[in-house]
Amino acid sequence: MSEELISDIYNAFKPYEALPADSPVYVRCSEVRGQENIFNEVGREIPRSNQSTCQLYTGHRGVGKSTELLRLKKYLEENGCLVVYFGATDSDIDEQDAQHTDILLACTRHILEDLKELANPRPLLQWLGNRLQELQKVLEQEVQINDPQVDVQIGAFAKLTANLQLVPGARQRIRAEVEAHTKTLTQALNDFIVEAKQHLPAGKTKLVVIADNLDRIVPVQRENGRNNHDEIFIDRCLQLRALQCHVIYTVPLSLVYSDRATEIRDNYKSPQILPMIMVQTRQNQIYPLGIERLSQIIQRRVDQVQPDLALDGDVFDMAATRLRLCEMSGGHVRELMLLLQVAIEWTDALPITGKAVRRAITEARENTYRNAVDDSEWIKLAEVAVSKQVPNEAGYRDLLFRRCLLEYREFVSEDEIVRWHDVHPLIRDLAAFQTALTQVQTS
Amino acid sequence: MTKKSTQWRQNPRDCNTAATNSVIAEESACLEKDTLVPADFEEIYAALRRAIGRQKGFGLVFVRCIPAIVEPLIQRLETDIPHKRMQTLHLTEPIATFFDLVQSRLETEPFDTLFVTGIEKSLVEYIKPGIGGIGDYYKEDTVPRILGHLNMQRERFRDELGVGLVFFLPLFAKKYFIHRAPDFFDWRTGDFEFPAEPGMLAAASRQVWLSGDYEQYCQLSATERRTKILEIRELIAEQQQIPDQQQQLWFELGNLLIAGQQYEEAIASYDQALAVKPDLHEAWTNRGIALGNLGRFEEAIASYDQALAVKPDKHEAWYNKACVYALQGNAPLALDHLQRAIELAPKKYRDMAKTDADFASLRDQPRFQALVTVDRGWRASVWCRQLIKVVAKLGSLPTVH
């Protein structure tokens, strides 16, 4: 088998691409994610509701959130909605310590970019002009944004924070300035939105904003034991909910396990969580259906390269090799891609052998996961491995954030959907974890 | 090409779980343990070569190894992967942004793969006390600017540059990525660790303690000291490190930490050294110093006693113990110990004791004065003793006629 083929297969498993809505390699995994269905759980409410809704969507990084949101976007567009979808980037979000004003400005910028033909941006321009004038005074420095494009201006304004880093205290002052005028910004933005809604294209009746990638904000811990996620999504929920259209924010999974989880539920209804694909049951038994789905994900991608390849025999030396790889991914799609790529790196020519997969597993376990856990955390991990539940405590949300603990969802019956947790399978065989597990089991 | 199994390819609804179950049983028989013996250098190199060679467009690879082998590795990769255009970016100073550096390099001379060294220099300044994390690392109340930048910019690297990036970095920097730039790190296609070979490790370790000197440690700036501390920790953590070198490194680390007044951490380091070599009296002595500086006098005395049990004429321990007793206000014991120290190394401790602030409370005591003063009588007695020795020697010589 040629080096070119193995190289093409290697590149078919890039761990960093969200799939477009109609991708031929997409595999529906709702069944093995506890009947999770983004159309029902997030989408359905929007076309029906007369009032604007604000929802949170979450899940582990790399579990497939952006892929699901792109599908949702298409679904909503087919159901009478105009959708503004954006993935926040560094030009939107402060890299070191993001705050809620960053998110508000990001929404403003992307709404303007997409809807500038539908409404008059002058009130927003006015707001911006006023802020610049005042900043000029406090910073005693020329602050000018000359581009006549409004969206560029807002973008550049948001970027000011980064560009003025060198001026002492500039960041705080810009923040304070925006903060003090959040209300008027929201007002101007809402005027713009309301006007745009009156001029929606034929067949569209709703306006939806999907703000993706907000889960990318690295948590910054405060002295009072809370972090910037709490401040943005809990303390400032009124501001985030103030837009006069339907909004979906992606948030970090760890936020849902904050000790103020009830406040989140009160403000945003229940956040929707995209769980891992179940590859093992709560009774620690392998869950064959989940393994099948992961295998299908691999097959679809291989088919794109060369459709007549059998997974067992051509790609993997035998079924057991493929099963092991799927099982050790923990049902996490990006981990699956990564393990597969590493296994191919340890393979000179196809098929991928059991040894290459074991090598990929060993390398991921020893090089990555062993370094992701602090010495004080093994016991916490062992406790979750036994109880299958994550308490709403700071220490555990970090472990969720680092993906040492994974969230699953099991559909038992219409009335009983169980959310449960387990330790990442790559951690399970680390000696330090096994020691902690024995300790927890005997006590 | 034959299809050996198409079972699970059927419609998911009809999937044959019984068949999968039987394969699972089979699997546990042949794949019981995943953990393999660590791969050797050449095997890891082959995997890295394939990873870089097969990558098309954007890709992220992390390679952790000691600095000494980075250059040879890069040269080998350049020779072995002729179909890729490769360049190296050596970062010598801390940086705040990275995207623009890669972009401008790409504009001057196109490449497919960029090797990056020195990214850890941008992280050192963030190693300081804060909330959470381990020791002073990966604090949860700050995000190093470069990591925040990479975490938010990852799409731009993919979409606008489309090249492969290979980061060569030490362990602490990799941990920093895992903890504080998790989204960027998550896009990796490889995470390689090259164990240093024993010979190279021995040389690098020896270099550390040969260049180690307490006076010099005190002169280092905070950043220089942190860099050196990290360097030692990396060496200690090396897979093939041997216990004898390890304990020497722990000991050096303890000394560096004392110079930085990080006494708790210093004690922990000495404990590690002593766990490997319980009779390392230098470590017991310096451990005593760290404990004394924290005001934990009883523990300090116990530590000096351990040193003296190994080496009864360890004059540093006698002297330091005297200091602790003096600070505790126990004049008789302080003077007894000082006397022993002075007997063992008269010149050194007479001068030292005269100005040592620890003895402020004893300075007026006649016995203290007598100990630190070289009186004529004492000189005479030394002279006499030497004379007796000479006479005795002479006496044993055969008589010359």
- Give the class of chain A from helix and strand content and strand pairing: alpha/beta
- Radius of gyration of chain A (CA) equals 24 Å
Largest β-sheet summary of chain A: 5 strands, parallel
Tell me the overall shape of chain A. Answer: globular
Extended strand count of chain A: 7
CATH superfamily of the domain at 41-195 in chain B: P-loop containing nucleotide triphosphate hydrolases
User: What kind of assembly state do the chains in view correspond to?
Assistant: heterodimer
| Content of β-strand of chain A | 5-15%
User: What does the largest sheet of chain B look like?
Assistant: 5 strands, parallel
Specify the CATH class of the domain at 41-195 in chain B.
Alpha Beta
Alpha-carbon Rg of chain B, integer: 31 Å
What is the annotated CATH architecture of the domain at 41-195 in chain B? 3-Layer(aba) Sandwich
Fraction of residues in H or I helices of chain A = 40-55%
Order of helices and strands of chain A: HHHEHEHHHHHEHHEHHEHHHHHHEEHH
| Helix share, percent of chain B | 55-70%
What's the overall geometry of chain B?
elongated
Please report the two chains with the greatest interface, counting residues with C-beta closer than 8 angstroms to the partner's C-beta.
Answer: A-B, 80 and 76 residues
- Give the distance, in angstroms, between the N- and C-terminal Cα atoms of chain B: 109 Å
Strand content of chain B: 5-15%
| Mean pLDDT across residues of chain A | 86
Features:
heterodimer; A: 443 residues; alpha/beta; five-stranded parallel beta sheet; two-stranded antiparallel ribbon; 51% helix; 10% strand; B: 401 residues; Rossmann fold; 5 strands; 60% helix; disordered N terminus; disordered C terminus
